[in-house]
Design a protein that fits this description.
The chain is an all-alpha fold. Helices cover 74% and strands 0% of the residues. It contains 21 helices and no strands. The two termini are 16 Å apart.
Length: 315
Amino acid sequence: MDPEYFKSHEMGWGTLGTVRPFSNFHPDRDVMEIQTALEKKDAVTLVRILTNRTNAQRQEIAKTFREMMQKDLSAGVKKALAGDLEILLLELLMPPLEHEAYRLQQAMAGIGTDEETLLEILCTRSGTKLQEISAVYKQLYRTDLEKELKGETSGDFTKLVLALLNKQNIAGGVQRDIEALSASLSGKKADSGPWIDILTSRDSDHLNKVLMGLELEIGQMVEQALEKKFTGDFQLGLQVLVQCIQSPDVYLAKKLTTTKTPILQSIMVSHSEEDLLCIRAAYLKLTGISLYTALQKQFKGDHLQALLAICRSED
């Protein structure tokens, strides 16, 4: 790990992220080192620099690289590296909103849809953040995110996904919401409407009270009720949403235990400056081993070193 990180440790405190500002930051110096590393295909140097800078600092490096070298840094990384490490460093070079837009686009590209990734982003991001991501999506892909989501989904799942994209914060009565959700489960066929309306338009404190009250009312866990009453993608959507309301950290930690490499590294990049410390703590509680140790069992070489640098330390 870069010794400069320890000097910057205090400077970045107050964040629950693992990647903090590099204190002795000179983008022109970084650019010279990166250019040499690209020529030599020296992954060690590229990993050391790019994982030890915040996203804002990486944007500064990319801008300086363009000015000094008259070339695009991402294009240079593509030429010099391959495989998962190349993708990881390219994701680190994307501004945060662009990275989330890219992940949504990838989840809908090609045959089939990666519903889990769509739900992960839609359920863990605020309404304001999702509107910002939508605007960047339109700029990057010249198409409307809402339109794309409609085309990739169907039925009640479409309604849920669009309500999440446009989520609001409307005041409601806890007891009234409990009764509405309870009534929606009582018929032969459950009514999806109240679940979509209530779960996408209240804050998480309110919804946690509602879900706890609902479990007392119906005498079973919400997860079990959803499994009995709903099916398919809509059931999956509600289950993910409920988990994210109850604890987004636990939900994301669970994803890290079961997911494929591209999604694991995308989640780590997305949360590296926000709340990866919380996800690490949830991971340890959930699995009994630290994320730092788990990564060492699953990956190797420069790719492992890059992931460990983002994870940052043992728990």
